[in-house]
Amino acid sequence: MRYETLLVHAGTQPDPTTGAIMTPVYLTSTYVQEGVGRPREGYEYSRTKNPTRVALEAALAALEGASYGLAFASGMAAIDAVLRLLPPGSHVVVGNDVYGGTYRLFEQVYRPYGLDFTYVDTTQPEQVARALREETRLIWLETPTNPLLRITDIRAVADLAHEHPARPLVAVDNTFATPYLQRPLELGADIVVHSTTKYLGGHSDVVGGAVVTNHLEVHQRLAFLQNAVGAVPGPLDCFLVLRGIKTLAVRMDRHSANALHVARFLEGHPRVVRVHYPFLERHPHYEVACRQMRAGGGMVSFQVESPEMAVQVAESTRIFALAESLGGVESLIEVPAAMTHASTAGSTLEVPPTLIRLSVGIEHSEDLVEDLAQALDKAASAR
Ligand SMILES: Cc1ncc(COP(=O)(O)O)c(C=O)c1O
Predict the structure, then answer these.
(1) Nearest CA to ligand 1 atom 8
(2) Are residues 96 and 187 in the same domain?
(3) Is 173 a catalytic residue?
(4) Is 196 close to ligand 1, i.e. is its CB under 6 Å away?
(5) Does the beta carbon of 107 lie inside 6 Å of ligand 1?
(6) Does residue 2 register a pLDDT over 80?
(7) With 80 as the cut, is the pLDDT of residue 383 above it?
(8) Domain limits at 112?
(9) Domains: count for the chain
């Protein structure tokens, strides 16, 4: 089965009682049992198992080419579950450009609990190799990174991790690329994490997360944590992500084409100092990006002349909505230093205040370019 077909059908089967083609939203907290301690099909309580979530989890696994998938209440809950795999005293090597909330979780929640984190430029695999220690249990990659769109060679990092005596797990946050554009497990990663809030949901109407893996032991521990900690998505949320997945291919093709068009426009604009988009030939990791990704995805970031100008541009667009998050059909604009990445202020992960991040939607690309052109003109004339 080709990937586009898989996206439409993964995890979903006609409902056995009615033939409903869409997976029903099983709004139930509990299930009537056949006898004492004899649940039907293993369904006892919805924190532990819910049919809508089971369908989503099967789809998530299939999309990443994985044996096992688990759905969580948010991307952060999914990342949190992976961190809970590690005993106190463990060391984690992390990319030095990651989502601000990931950095906040690592530094403000897990460091006080006895985990140690080293942040390196994972686009240089030798920096990862140098940071590994006897107690390194996890390498945390985001590629493309949020917000600078840097690309890490997943296979190179996975190879060096698996050759190291500590044998750390390699986890990839695949939120920006989605499995349609990049499948980290096929490149040697052990765990893939998603904020399904973004492209998998695709319509800015749900918050969710996912973890997939091929390791049975890792999956069993994560499934235990999912139930024991309880950060599970509700059935309607699961339904919305399942529905979003069906159109992932057509949306990602359009997001990627629009983003490339916008990135090329920005590259030629006199007020734009630098554009970050992995499928621009000038991007420093263009070759790795072309090797491991099908297309560049919908995220573009760019730098302008001053922090004030970044704010003015972000406040002057008419189609791009000024908002955090990403991955929906509508275009969004934000200033990471003041919004999504405010928690990295003063750290080595601090992002430039002149940076603007775009989540390029599926509108007509000319409308998007015209909108950015007028916002840049307005910001320039206001100076
Ligand atoms: C790359 C990345 N990972 C994880 C998250 C966290 O996901 P959520 O907001 O669903 O908790 C985000 C949120 O923006 C993100 O951009």
Answers:
(1) 75
(2) yes
(3) yes
(4) no
(5) no
(6) yes
(7) no
(8) 3-246
(9) 2
